[in-house]
């Protein structure tokens, strides 16, 4: 290869790095939440399989992938400290390619969301605005250890759940669906707080006031655990009130499994937070689907 060809190659992003930029591992939570919304709507998903497929792709690879690209572009200075091997700071995605990818995926998100009708498109607009508000200046809600994780929890769990139910029902979801989607979105604040542990040093140096930075790892981990557990306790209580005792018992069981994992994590939060996010969260999302099946036939007015 000639010198000029080599230089030209360096100006273009590495395809493998482009896939790494949009982080497929992060797509699961919003895709799962969208499926929970579909189940909770009480409408046979195979009757509208096209909306199911488009919504899952939109929630995961497209919107979530876009948010990851936008976040990595806006976090390139932080990542140069925390994780210099990431696509942008490592140079595998050179120049402004990270920004162009995020903007192109923003346009794709809106175009795909439009095919889901007014409820789906409206939710997509909210998700896109939230993604940029989280990462980009001058708003950059990521700087707040309270607002940032809260916004991500809403967009990862609550908004996709609401959207899946609204798209299939072709209208506003039932009151119980809104209640449980909101509760699981609130609980996801704790998951996102634990996720901030991996960027502790870079956040401290660049002024991001995450809870692990402002409160310290031990206190932040306790706040995260309480934040995850309390909404699920409310879910269990609501299911009992709504006449779904067996579903309530199942959600209580997965909560107990989380509490056991939390005890392990709290012994060394800084080291164990990533472990909890790959193990304890499995029980959290299992409870989401159990709850979705529980509320799918409820007819309760606000």
Can you describe this structure?
- The structure is a single chain.
- This protein is mostly helical.
- The protein has one domain: Farnesyl Diphosphate Synthase (Orthogonal Bundle).
- The chain contains 14 helices and no strands.
- It has helices at 3-10, 15-21, 28-40, 49-74, 76-82, 97-114, 117-135, 147-169, 175-195, 200-206, 211-214, 217-241, 245-266, 269-295.
- Helix 5 (76-82) crosses helix 10 and helix 9 (175-195) runs antiparallel to helix 12.
- 48% of the residues are buried.
- Mean pLDDT is 92; it is low at 1-8.
Give the SSE map.
Blueprint: H1 3-10, H2 15-21, H3 28-40, H4 49-74, H5 76-82, H6 97-114, H7 117-135, H8 147-169, H9 175-195, H10 200-206, H11 211-214, H12 217-241, H13 245-266, H14 269-295
